[in-house]
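pasting for the record
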Amino acid sequence: MLPRAGKDFLVRIRFSWRPLFQGRYLLLTNTLSGGIMLSLGDILQQTRENRREPGRVRDWRRTGRMFVAGCSMGPLLHYWYLWLDRVYVGRALKTLSKKVLVDQLVASPTLGMWYFIGMDLLEGRSLSEGWAEFRGKFWEFYK
């Protein structure tokens, strides 16, 4: 059991976080969470790579590029899902199926292209190299 002061503290924290997931700060939350999720994914992947090759050094610049790429996708995804919710209203299975289908046919390839081209540009490669990498890895990515 928590003492009374601990419970009060947890309640205050709960209510101070609420605005980040509603209304006016939601765009900021979605933008930062996109960057944080890609960064965490990269940290996990590099940890896995370092276990396979013990001499490797963690590349924090790569993690930073992942953060930038994720943050750049955040606003697009924020407005995409707002649009999807306006076009396909409701929670019925048929409506959810339509949302998932449209999301997979439109947003997934678009964001895949955004990711591959964006990462290549952040790594100092050209737009055409990014496009070639996207085309070469598209089906593996899409699966």
